[in-house]
Amino acid sequence: MDNARLAEGLHEHTAGLARAVEAADPDQPVPTCPEWPLRVLVGHIGQAHRWAASIVRDGPSPVPDPFDEDPGSPDEWSGWLDRGAADLEAAVRAAGDSPVWTFFGPQPARFWLRRMLHDTTIHHADAALATGNGFTVAPDLAADAISEWLEVLSDPVTASLKPAFAELRGTGQTLHLQPSGNGEGPGWLITRTPGGVRWTRDGTTTADVTLAGPLEDLLLVLTRRRPADRVTLTGDRALAAHWLAHTAA
């Protein structure tokens, strides 16, 4: 997925989040982010885009606290969010292929465009679910979001950032994510090893447990925005439950 598509998706889901919270109570709770009201959710996204842009331009800085961000008046949220996404896109475009700081070591600046796209997509879903608005994500973006999330989970650094992820280690247990829609591509075979999570794109291998459904549902179940009964689960249900219990995004 090239930078143009990543940027397009970032703007699409930033605008979608803004539409989802339009005219909503800023203090309304967000059930899928139980400690946050809508104001904090909106603040987090605008803050995160600007923070990522500052990393690309100037290097690392401490992870900001979403409760410290003031997104302003709700009638200004849409423009404020759009400016943050535009700032990040501009920073990445200016950096080109230059390596920048990430949690996982130096990587091209597009790392942050991709990371913020998928974070924004999931929080767009949070906002839509909280306010009763519709949510959709294009299949290519949903597939890339799943791959990116598995990349995060499989990196050895991740368990040091969030100890619960260390519980995903295993002794060879396998999970298969299988898209059921036409043209949605191959699935993902996840293996829990003593050294951590390993995964490949695989549409045929039999696993201990398989979760099958449209890409959008697989993504929202994988990130615990929808319950597991949104997809078809066959095999070791306890294994699936343990995985989902330790992968809150």
Note the gap between the termini. 22 Å
Number of alpha- plus pi-helical segments: 8
User: What name is given to the CATH topology of the largest domain?
Assistant: Four Helix Bundle (Hemerythrin (Met), subunit A)
Q: What count of structural domains? A: 2
Report on the structure:
The chain is built from eight helices and seven strands, in the order αααββαααββββαβα. The chain has helices spanning 3-21, 38-58, 77-95, 110-131, 139-154, 156-161, 215-222, 237-245; strands at residues 99-100, 107-108, 173-179, 188-193, 196-201, 209-213, 232-235. α4 (110-131) crosses α5 and α5 (139-154) packs parallel to α7 (215-222). The chain is globular.
Features:
249 residues, Four Helix Bundle (Hemerythrin (Met), subunit A), Nonspecific Lipid-transfer Protein, Chain A, 5-stranded mixed beta sheet, two-stranded antiparallel ribbon, 8 helices, 48% helix, 13% strand
Task: Provide a short characterization of the protein structure.
The protein has helices spanning 3-21, 38-58, 77-95, 110-131, 139-154, 156-161, 215-222, 237-245; strands spanning 99-100, 107-108, 173-179, 188-193, 196-201, 209-213, 232-235. With 249 residues, it is of the alpha+beta class. A five-stranded mixed sheet has the order 5-4-3-6-7.
